[in-house]
Amino acid sequence: MALQSLRIEPIAELSCAGQLARLYFSFSQSQLTLPNTLVVKLHAPDEPLRAKTRPFTPDKREILFYQHLADEIPLRIPHCYYSAMNVADGKYVRILEDLAPAKVGDQIRGSTAEETAPALRAIAGFHAHCWQNEKLEGFDWLSGSPTDSDSIARWVLDQYQNAFPIFVSKAGVLLTDAAKAFGEQLPDKLTDKPQFGKPPRTLVHGDFRLENVFFGASLGESGFAVIDWQDISHGEGVWDVAWFIGGCLQVTSNRQVEEWQLLKIYHETLEANGVSGYTFDACWKDYRRAILRYFVQAVLMVASLNPQNDRESRLARAVAERFIAAITDLRLIDG
């Protein structure tokens, strides 16, 4: 059996800071053991974009995650067949399982509370499996980059202050005066807050949202898979919860109640999977702090989206609306 042809098509339906393409294979005779399609994931196409993300070492993190941790976690993820990296040049490659015909989630539409609950149960099981795992302490690449954490924090806040006026213009009438004042004062609030990453710690996906989740019967019993492990870190599990609820939960008249119920589901699933000594009150307080962190990420995300692209404009508006609702419902804008 020999490879007869290889066709490469860019993947437009998935968002990624790097380059994604689907590889189509044909062989000289039928075969059942090799896939007919794979996905290749490369580094960002241009140096300025690579320089922007270099402090966070996202490509290196994902490759090391696949090499050292992926086989142990209780989540359906794409299998990595091959990976290589040249850290000095900022060039990376991953050859991954193609999850088609499963479909990626729609972040513009968002998710209902009923659709969000299974995702939180899945991520809670993942967090519980890695909860206070001493093995994670041995992976220095999970903790950060060669740049110290204070410098990274300052860089992020500088980026936020430059991005917030763009966020304001894109949010438009969605942004109340109180929410705008909150956003302007947020850098001072974050400077005064305790550092993130306090115990109890676990393995955190870091970008857990609908655009990184696949759904479909082809994925097995769970019907659910998680992609894009470039922001994997050792931290607090509620970071993932805050990004998913804050960025994906549809804004309804019952949102505030749904938010509380969803966090209860997350916490109860942790306990059902063996986590003890972490009260719901502590979880709720950690979640509120995490929403502050991810409001910053939401602002950066919205500001970076292309206003000339209709889909990206609708995505920016949806994410802005949800995080404005989150900080309002949680009364974070009151101080």
Q: In CATH terms, what is the fold-level topology of the largest domain?
A: Aminoglycoside 3'-phosphotransferase, Chain: A, domain 2
Q: Segments where pLDDT lies below 50 for 5+ residues?
A: none
Total number of beta strands: 10
In the CATH scheme, the class of the largest domain would be Alpha Beta
Number of domains: 2
Order of helices and strands: EEEHHEEEHHHEEEEHHHH
Mean pLDDT: 88
Biggest sheet features: 5 strands, antiparallel
- Enumerate the strands of the largest sheet in spatial order, edge to edge or round the barrel: 1-2-3-5-4
Number of helices: 9
Oligomer: single chain
What is the correct CATH architecture of the largest domain? Alpha-Beta Complex
The radius of gyration is: 20 Å
Which structural class is indicated by helix and strand composition? Answer: alpha+beta
Assign a percent range to the helix content: 40-55%
Shape: globular
Strand content: 15-25%
CATH homologous superfamily annotation of the largest domain: Aminoglycoside phosphotransferase (APH), C-terminal lobe
Structure description:
The chain has 335 residues and is an alpha+beta fold. It has 2 domains: 3-97, Phosphorylase Kinase, domain 1, CATH 3.30.200; 103-334, Aminoglycoside phosphotransferase (APH), C-terminal lobe (Aminoglycoside 3'-phosphotransferase, Chain: A, domain 2, Alpha-Beta Complex). Helix content is 44%, strand content 15%. It has 9 helices and 10 strands. The strands form 3 sheets. It has a 5-stranded antiparallel β-sheet, covered by helices on one side. Strand 8 and strand 9 form a beta hairpin. Helix 4 packs across helix 8 (280-304). The longest helix is centred in the last third of the chain and has 25 residues, at 280-304. The chain is globular and about 65 Å long. The model has no long low-confidence stretch (mean pLDDT 88).
